[in-house]
Amino acid sequence: MAAQDGLTPSQVAAFEQDGYLIIPDALPPSAVSALVRETHRLLKEDFTLQGHPLTKFQTGGDDGQEHVGDDYFLGSGDKVRFFLEEDAFDPTTGLLDKPKERAVNKIGHYLHVLNPVFANVTAAATSHSGDFAGTLPVAPIARSLGFRDPRCLQSMIICKQPEIGGAVPPHQDSTFLYTDPPSAVGFWYALEDTTMANGCLSFWPGSHKTAPVYQRLMRRDDQTGTHIVPNPGTQFPHNIQTGTMDLIPADKQDDASQYVPGEVKAGSLVLIHGNLLHKSEKNLSDKSRIIYTFHTIEGEGATYDGKNWLQPPASGFTKLYV
């Protein structure tokens, strides 16, 4: 397909049916190499333990209540900060027992603006040159999915370190980046081959139509952190009519038999509907699983909640259409 045309009708239909879409070769090998080099440079040169609060990244405990909530995390929406793997620490001493470059879980959350290498991914098609020539532009993809005013937010590198890269339990992105009605779509790029061994994504196909956004991760009223609360707002996008379909109960979302693994090659783009249930297992292999991801939300006709953990910078979330 021509870059300026976005997705084909069959790709849009597949996304609407399954709630996710795998697009091979969205990044050329030269772009993948440039992004991996920059990731390693960030880990080696920009990340320092001096003055770092040693913030561990947690997506949720067994009860769904444990989440990062300190100022270092909550203030990262317009910065580039480093969050550590839980298993990079010695449980008896509480000290890191991995080299700092092998201890980072993720880097976020404003790479698409502050980092000139990663900013290439969301640049206008006419800006793709050099290592990024041939990169599939994201704005036409967003237009294909029906966005009128797509806004880019929460860009991050997830490292999934060898042997310690943590599992991510079943979740929906709209829980964390809630708009009313829900509108989030994840753009997830593999910068290394992702396999069952190193913790690839798994999806519950079609669950975006049957899994309501039951809960929200919201800032506490006293601004001391975040907590999971029942969602008081709309649970599905307006274009999804559940009708007589059976909805997935909240206590059945971890049914392993429903999930399909999504092994992909480096350079692949995975689009993920905000209501889709997806997860990844722990990386027990000796190979890392570096990916880059950001999300889009609708800036026209959807309200971004002021209690979401991530709040917009003074200039607002980044427009994909200019």
UniProtKB/TrEMBL annotation:
Q: Name its co-factor(s).
A: Fe cation
Please name the Gene3D superfamilies in this protein's record. q2cbj1_9rhob like domain (2.60.120.620)
> Which of UniProt's keywords are assigned here?
Iron, Metal-binding
What's one Pfam family the UniProt record gives for this protein?
A: PhyH
InterPro entries linked to this entry: Phytyl_CoA_dOase-like
Record SUPFAM superfamilies? Clavaminate synthase-like (SSF51197)
The UniProt entry, under PANTHER family, shows:
PHYTANOYL-COA DIOXYGENASE DOMAIN CONTAINING 1, PHYTANOYL-COA DIOXYGENASE DOMAIN-CONTAINING PROTEIN 1
Q: Which family does it belong to?
A: Belongs to the PhyH family.
The name on file for this protein is: Phytanoyl-CoA dioxygenase family protein
